[in-house]
Design brief:
Elements: E1 2-7, E2 13-14, E3 29-33, H1 35-41, H2 44-48, E4 77-79, H3 81-87, E5 91-96, H4 106-120, E6 124-128, H5 132-144, E7 147-153, H6 158-165, E8 170-174, H7 178-191, E9 195-196, H8 202-207, H9 211-219, E10 227-231, H10 236-250, E11 260-266, H11 271-277, H12 302-311, E12 315-319, H13 321-335, H14 341-355, E13 364-369, H15 394-411
Bound molecules: pyridoxal-5'-phosphate (PLP) and zinc ion.
Length: 412
């Protein structure tokens, strides 16, 4: 029940078209809904009877026709007692979005955007990507039988390049950082009549992230947590989770939202965190970190992300490269979940904010793990123990065990 688009800055309305920027003030356009109408037909029972994908919330998404569906969404919410104990928290949950079809949360936004591209009649889709978006757009384009052009920084992790190429898109590595790739892509989008999921289709794309708000509320028995920790690249995901929570109040599904939203970035690229902590404008930076999927130096929704942090009385923090690696290892060792660097950012930031008392031990906390560790294995190679090798011989194993025990005893 989409009404159209509306400028988030000046409020000017636009019809439902593939546009993303206001022609008057250059503000970002956002999808508008008729919540009164949605309220009439939507209920908890209806949602719970829906498919086990993000499309169970179709009434609150901007797609009318058939959807391009690789079964993204409705991912597990783990009660993370081991990690909670390690950090000294009482109640901690992990929203594990690393188990989506292409192993990151981007499948949510792309499923919506590529469905919308079909609705608009595009025969080609594309994107500028820091990696995960490339994987997801390539996969959904394959499923939808659309032509596909994807632009990435040429120095991306090998895992993400292979996981894009396998779906058969036209993949172009641009010699530059993401912000330069994005600038080129915006120029290309002006030349060709293609659906770029994060450029001219961006208002629709962004709506897919709201489902990470709906799902957590549903999985917590239709309540919202006291605190969420969200990784930030462009800032879109963070603002849309907040929008999702608040829409549930709007349509009478939950009573109130009392969630403090917390942003997590890598120290080597933290324009949103810095703007919040110094109470200033978001200033572009040049990324320098092992964390590539969040490495957007000039975040399109940075201003709105900071606004949500303030409005929700939340906070923000950043993790160093070392803390990112430690965060990845800590999550794996305590909860059996292998995340990519973005998840390391989230765990590292959470740890810091609990240690310095900014996150209270009694809060009910949900952290968003948005990408899978198999995508960025290269960053871990130097930080894990080397492989112990033996001959296929029982004695040799017994000897090894003895040695290990001795070492352990000595260490204690
Ligand atoms: C894209 C991405 C995000 C967040 O992106 P936004 O641009 O802020 O919406 C978070 N985690 C991972 C792993 C991502 O790929
Ligand atoms: Zn405007």
């Amino acid at each position: 029940m989409i009404v159209g688009l509306k400028c988030r800055n000046c409020g000017k309305r636009y019809p439902e078209e593939p546009v993303s920027i206001c022609e008057d003030c250059f503000g970002p356009l956002e999808v508008e809904y008729d919540y009164e109408k949605i309220k009439e037909s939507l209920s908890i029972e209806k949602i719970e009877k829906g498919p086990n994908t993000l499309w169970r919330y179709k009434d609150l998404l901007p797609v009318k026709s058939k959807v391009v569906d690789l079964k993204a969404g409705f991912t597990p919410l783990h009660k993370a007692d081991n990690l909670a104990e390690e950090l000294g928290l009482k109640e901690l949950y992990i929203k594990n979005d690393s188990v989506n079809p292409t192993f990151s949360f981007k499948d949510r936004v792309v499923s919506v955007a590529v469905s919308k591209a079909l609705e608009f009649g595009f025969d080609t889709v594309g994107c500028a990507s820091t990696g995960n978006l490339a994987n997801s757009v390539a996969a959904h384009a394959a499923k939808a039988k659309l032509k596909c052009y994807i632009f990435i920084p040429a120095d991306l992790n090998l895992g993400k390049i292979i996981q894009t190429l396998v779906y058969g898109p036209n993949l172009i590595g641009v010699k530059g950082n993401y912000d330069e790739v994005n600038r080129l892509c915006t120029e290309i989008a002006g030349y060709y009549d293609w659906g770029f999921v994060n450029i001219n289709l961006r208002p629709y794309y962004a709506e897919g992230s709201k489902t990470l708000g709906y799902e957590v509320a549903e999985q917590l028995g239709w309540t919202t947590p006291d605190r969420i920790v969200v990784p930030v690249a462009s800032g879109s995901l963070l603002t849309k989770i907040w929008k999702g929570f608040n829409e549930l109040v709007e349509v009478d599904i939950i009573d109130e939202v009392k969630t403090r939203v917390t942003a997590a970035q890598a120290q080597g690229c933290s324009p949103v965190v810095t703007a919040f902590l110094t109470n200033s404008e978001v200033k572009p930076v040049r990324p320098n970190t092992i964390e590539k999927s969040l490495a957007i130096g000039n975040p399109a929704d940075g201003y709105y992300a900071v606004k949500v942090l303030k409005e929700s009385m939340g906070t923000a923090g950043a993790a160093s490269d070392e803390e990112i690696i430690d965060g990845i290892k800590l999550l794996a060792k305590t909860e059996g979940i292998f995340t990519e660097t973005a998840g390391g950012v989230v765990v590292g930031t959470l740890k810091k904010l609990v240690e310095n008392g900014e996150i209270d031990k009694d809060e009910r906390v949900v952290i968003y793990i948005t990408g899978n560790g198999l995508k960025t294995q290269d960053v871990l190679a130097d930080y894990l123990p080397s492989l112990i090798k033996i001959n296929p011989d029982l004695n040799e194993f017994n000897e090894l065990l003895k040695k290990k025990t001795t070492v352990k005893e000595v260490a204690i």
